[in-house]
């Protein structure tokens, strides 16, 4: 029987995993510069956590969510995105309390699950690195979040990034826009895709995000949200732009951008790349926005929030390049079965001193073992044969110089760091 991995998933193998670790380490470093700390929430939640936050007309919830009933009859879902679980944790752990510094800034890294048609840059299990900042309403944190997104992508190796922003306004702006949008779309009702006909009743704003080509054609002539911003919303959006200007971050405004999740308001943004690895055109690698009503929606106190999610698989394409296989500084060659036990004890002692050591576990001939030592790029080869066993010594060869010496086992163990440093110097 041959099993295959589930459709839309990937095995991250040694070699590739080194690249993942590098991306994650770079991200952690950049996130720390912005004072974000890591939060880890469950890979699954009560289904309602997602349907209440992402919105029960969003594609993510209606079409893409992995839902299941557990043996206790609870409706659960694998997380399709990171924000809902973090907000749930924020509320449940009362992280809005006065003992916590505001804005409360957290990041997450991990797997997300969406039942989508797999294609390049689109998987069913994929990974996101995302941030959430709670408790700050000022445009300054919007601009900082966008700056962080840009720093992340540039830090990971993007050559140029296109920043696209829009504002979805406050509830007042949304209400006014909603009315105008429905008035515009209603005459096209019959022409809209089936999905969008449903959206027209339930959530017309969603239609702006339709992937259907004819819907998109119709949407081109629709009224623009930016013409319906309240004075407060307009002020906020202008301030974000001023701050981006001050920080020297170029951006485009796209009045048709709405984002796939229902919880956004005010500033939303996407960071895109036209790197050739994406096969032409702009691809969104990182996307987010402000969600001022979401904490309340999940049962917490009125708390503003803003965040983004970055697709790690897509960011990895930008990071590309190779991470060389790690070299093994010390290799132990054992020439008789009797030497194996002594070699293992020596390996263990050296590892405890902080060095990576490898040896032969296949009872191969000395020649084959030396070949492996060369292949893994060992700086130091330690050989134990019958005569060494008898004399309680070890043959020590510095590979760079080819110099050999025989050292008493006790001396080698005691002064290993010195012997190693000497071998590297030679
Ligand atoms: P799209 O319009 O491409 O479906 P989205 O709006 O669903 O994107 P978000 O929910 O905003 O995407 O997720 C943020 C980022 O996560 C995306 O920009 C992308 O880099 C990544 N992402 C989303 N879905 C997938 C997926 N199925 N496979 C790989 N990466 C994904
Ligand atoms: Mg999607």
TrEMBL record:
<dbReference type="Pfam" id="PF03129">
    <property type="entry name" value="HGTP_anticodon"/>
</dbReference>
<keyword id="KW-0436">Ligase</keyword>
<protein>
    <recommendedName>
        <fullName>Histidine--tRNA ligase</fullName>
        <ecNumber>6.1.1.21</ecNumber>
    </recommendedName>
</protein>
<feature type="binding site">
    <location>
        <begin position="263"/>
        <end position="264"/>
    </location>
    <ligand>
        <name>L-histidine</name>
    </ligand>
</feature>
<comment type="similarity">
    <text>Belongs to the class-II aminoacyl-tRNA synthetase family.</text>
</comment>
<dbReference type="InterPro" id="IPR041715">
    <property type="entry name" value="HisRS-like_core"/>
</dbReference>
<feature type="binding site">
    <location>
        <position position="114"/>
    </location>
    <ligand>
        <name>L-histidine</name>
    </ligand>
</feature>
<keyword id="KW-0648">Protein biosynthesis</keyword>
<dbReference type="GO" id="GO:0005737">
    <property type="term" value="C:cytoplasm"/>
</dbReference>
<dbReference type="Pfam" id="PF13393">
    <property type="entry name" value="tRNA-synt_His"/>
</dbReference>
<dbReference type="InterPro" id="IPR036621">
    <property type="entry name" value="Anticodon-bd_dom_sf"/>
</dbReference>
<dbReference type="GO" id="GO:0140096">
    <property type="term" value="F:catalytic activity, acting on a protein"/>
</dbReference>
<dbReference type="GO" id="GO:0004821">
    <property type="term" value="F:histidine-tRNA ligase activity"/>
</dbReference>
<feature type="binding site">
    <location>
        <position position="259"/>
    </location>
    <ligand>
        <name>L-histidine</name>
    </ligand>
</feature>
<comment type="subunit">
    <text>Homodimer.</text>
</comment>
<dbReference type="InterPro" id="IPR006195">
    <property type="entry name" value="aa-tRNA-synth_II"/>
</dbReference>
<keyword id="KW-0030">Aminoacyl-tRNA synthetase</keyword>
<dbReference type="GO" id="GO:0005524">
    <property type="term" value="F:ATP binding"/>
</dbReference>
<dbReference type="InterPro" id="IPR015807">
    <property type="entry name" value="His-tRNA-ligase"/>
</dbReference>
<dbReference type="InterPro" id="IPR004154">
    <property type="entry name" value="Anticodon-bd"/>
</dbReference>
<dbReference type="InterPro" id="IPR045864">
    <property type="entry name" value="aa-tRNA-synth_II/BPL/LPL"/>
</dbReference>
<dbReference type="GO" id="GO:0006427">
    <property type="term" value="P:histidyl-tRNA aminoacylation"/>
</dbReference>
<feature type="binding site">
    <location>
        <begin position="81"/>
        <end position="83"/>
    </location>
    <ligand>
        <name>L-histidine</name>
    </ligand>
</feature>
<dbReference type="InterPro" id="IPR033656">
    <property type="entry name" value="HisRS_anticodon"/>
</dbReference>
<keyword id="KW-0963">Cytoplasm</keyword>
<feature type="binding site">
    <location>
        <position position="132"/>
    </location>
    <ligand>
        <name>L-histidine</name>
    </ligand>
</feature>
<dbReference type="InterPro" id="IPR004516">
    <property type="entry name" value="HisRS/HisZ"/>
</dbReference>
<keyword id="KW-0547">Nucleotide-binding</keyword>
<feature type="domain" description="Aminoacyl-transfer RNA synthetases class-II family profile">
    <location>
        <begin position="19"/>
        <end position="329"/>
    </location>
</feature>
<keyword id="KW-0067">ATP-binding</keyword>
<feature type="binding site">
    <location>
        <position position="128"/>
    </location>
    <ligand>
        <name>L-histidine</name>
    </ligand>
</feature>
<dbReference type="GO" id="GO:0016740">
    <property type="term" value="F:transferase activity"/>
</dbReference>
């Amino acid at each position: 029987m041959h099993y295959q991995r589930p459709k839309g998933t990937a095995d991250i193998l040694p070699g590739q995993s080194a690249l993942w670790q590098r991306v994650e380490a770079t991200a952690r470093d950049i996130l720390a510069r912005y004072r974000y700390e890591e939060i880890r929430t469950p890979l699954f939640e009560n289904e309602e956590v997602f349907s209440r936050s992402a919105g029960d007309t969003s594609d993510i919830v209606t079409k893409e969510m992995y839902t299941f009933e557990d043996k206790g009859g609870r409706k659960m879902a694998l997380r399709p995105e990171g924000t809902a679980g973090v907000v749930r944790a924020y509320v449940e752990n009362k992280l809005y309390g006065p003992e916590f510094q505001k804005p409360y800034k957290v990041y997450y890294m991990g797997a997300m699950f969406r039942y989508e048609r797999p294609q390049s840059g689109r998987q069913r299990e994929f990974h996101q690195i995302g941030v959430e900042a709670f408790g700050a309403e000022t445009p300054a944190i919007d601009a900082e979040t966008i700056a962080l997104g840009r720093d992340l992508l540039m830090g990971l190796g993007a050559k140029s990034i296109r920043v696209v922003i829009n504002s979805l306004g406050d509830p007042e702006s949304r209400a006014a826009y909603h009315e105008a949008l429905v008035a515009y779309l209603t005459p096209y009702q019959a022409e809209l895709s089936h999905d969008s006909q449903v959206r027209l009743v339930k959530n017309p704003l969603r239609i702006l995000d339709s992937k259907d080509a004819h819907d998109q054609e119709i949407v081109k002539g629709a009224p623009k949200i930016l013409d319906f911003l309240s004075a407060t919303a307009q002020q906020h959006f202008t301030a974000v732009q001023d701050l981006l200007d001050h920080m020297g971050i170029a951006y485009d405004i796209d009045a048709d951008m709405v984002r796939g999740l229902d919880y956004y308001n005010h500033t939303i943004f996407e960071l895109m790349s036209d790197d050739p690895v994406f096969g032409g055109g702009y691809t969104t690698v990182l996307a987010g926005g402000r969600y001022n009503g979401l904490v309340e929606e999940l049962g917490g106190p009125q708390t503003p929030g803003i965040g983004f999610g970055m697709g790690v698989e897509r960011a990895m394409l930008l990071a590309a390049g190779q991470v060389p296989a790690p070299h093994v500084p010390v290799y132990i060659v054992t020439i008789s079965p009797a030497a194996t036990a002594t070699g293992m004890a020596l390996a263990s002692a050296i590892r405890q001193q902080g060095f990576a050591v490898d040896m032969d576990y296949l009872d191969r001939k000395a020649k084959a073992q030396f070949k492996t030592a060369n292949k893994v790029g060992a700086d130091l080869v330690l050989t134990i044969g019958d005569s060494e066993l008898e004399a309680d010594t070890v043959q020590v060869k510095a590979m760079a110089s080819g110099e050999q010496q025989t050292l008493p086992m006790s001396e080698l163990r005691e002064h290993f760091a010195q012997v190693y440093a000497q071998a590297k110097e030679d």
